[in-house]
Amino acid sequence: MGLELYLDLVSQPCRAVYIFARKNNIPFEFKRVELLKGQHRTEEFKKVNMLMTVPALKDDSFTLAESIAILLYLAGKFKTADHWYPAELQKRARVDEYLSWQHTTIRAKGSEMFLHKVLMPIITGKPIPAEKLQSLTGELNVVLNQFEEKFLQDKPFIAGTEISLADLLALEEIMQPLGVGHDPFEGRPKLAAWRKRVEGALGQQLCQEAHQLLLNPSTLSADKFTPELLEGLKQKFLK
């Protein structure tokens, strides 16, 4: 059967896995799981990942969940270039440091901005309140400042002079608000220059391909959501 990757490219960790596999010429079968249609909650998908999340990996009879675990598995199995997850102790520690930090900071705040801006108008029929948007923007700016000052500093990339898994995951998380019209790179020349370097190392065509769904407004229209998913989101966001 070979390697199968279960992905939805609206999801930032899915895009990271997709880009990494494509960039490193890793052969895989793309199994699209449409989150807005609830396909991650089917009995068929639960056989691959009982957590009902994407990305997910199936390598013959072996299955694996969680994007970082999947990326490290692919890097190890396919012996990708050292710069992705360096063997040198301190460079690897820099990558691990970012990977440990990102979940409750860059990912959480970028996702919150994305979800509120796309879901609140669908759920309530009204735009997101100005005060809520201001609050979300402020929280996102705090973690972006931390990213620039702590992790990026004056280096080309997070772990030094070459791209790593940390840069790939960071780019996809920071890109997420662009899908709802909020540009986190605006007014941040250091961050914008870093983005250009990361996309240059990955390849512009591959990045455009991976970001096509995210940056297409029709992807997130109300008619794309199943009634069951909308009801669940209402209970979560309007409680």
Automatic annotation (TrEMBL):
Task: Indicate the segments annotated as coiled coil, or none if absent.
Answer: none
Start and end residues of each GST N-terminal domain: 1-82
Q: Which GO terms describe its biological process?
A: glutathione metabolic process
State the UniProt keywords alphabetically: Cytoplasm, Transferase
- CDD domains named in the record: GST_C_Theta, GST_N_Theta
- What molecular functions are annotated in GO for this chain? glutathione transferase activity
UniProt EC number: 2.5.1.18
Its quaternary organisation is:
Homodimer.
Q: Which PANTHER family match?
A: GLUTATHIONE S-TRANSFERASE THETA-1, PTHR43917
Recorded protein name is: glutathione transferase
- Gene designation: Gstt1_0
